[in-house]
Write a structure and sequence with these properties.
Layout (H helix, E strand, L loop, with lengths): L2 E2 L6 E2 L10 E2 L1 H16 L6 H20 L4 E2 L1 H37 L9
Parallel strand pairs: 3-4
Antiparallel strand pairs: 1-2
Helix pairs in contact: 1-2, 1-3, 2-3
Length: 120
């Protein structure tokens, strides 16, 4: 925790002896794990579920990190987890678009043409 020194604007990084030790935020680690899972399962359209859970947990974890005033560690893990969650959602949407295009092309190929044969 930062404490102000004797001079105005000067801060020191010394901690008070009664201050608790900083600990890792477990929700930030969970967000990172769920974000990684969403990237891995994103191309299979299953990445949306862990990504959504990760984004919801990220809001809670961010509030806790801010309220802890430096005694909870994990802001970098939280940011990385959120980025991975959004990447998983983008991968799932991209796969959905690719599957829709493949489906339309397959449907068009099976339908064939309905034109009458022309006789010259």
């Amino acid at each position: 925790m930062r404490r102000t020194g004797y001079r105005r604007g000067v801060t020191s990084t010394t901690r008070h002896p009664l201050d608790p030790d900083p600990v890792r935020a477990t929700k930030a680690s969970a967000v990172l794990g769920l974000g990684l899972l969403s990237v891995v399962t994103g191309p299979f359209l299953g990445g949306v579920i862990p990504a959504t859970i990760a984004l919801l947990m990220a809001k809670e974890s961010h509030r806790e990190l801010v309220a802890a005033d430096g005694f909870l560690l994990g802001a970098k893990r939280l940011r990385t987890g959120v980025r991975l969650a959004w990447t998983g959602i983008v991968l799932a949407v991209a796969m959905l678009v690719v599957l829709a295009i493949i489906g339309l092309l397959t449907y068009a190929r099976q339908r064939g043409t309905d034109f009458d044969p022309t006789v010259n």
